[in-house]
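Quarterly update from the structural biology core.
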Amino acid sequence: MDGNYIYVREAREQARVPANGILSQSIQSDEKTKVILFGFAAGQELSAHTAPFPATLTFLRGEASLRLGGEEQEAVEGTFVYMRANLEHGIKAKTDVVMILTMIKA
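Predicted structure, tokenized:
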């Protein structure tokens, strides 16, 4: 790799899903964006919170319930979500889940 790109083949296989809990690993971070690969064990929850910048969620494996503002949505493999800054959101894994979070800082 020459520093101009980051290449992750089979990101869903790179994610570590713990037996009980949530693990995250940073894939990329600079002044404009941060990309984090998450592994959620079934039943784990990231409680509702906000972030000061827009973000996307891309679900690579599993099923989850999402809280997006005042709405509930379901996520499955292939689900993509764009969230504006300060949107209250939360995630509860129904099964083991692998997800990519991209924070857009600039």
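DSSP finds one helix and nine strands in the chain.
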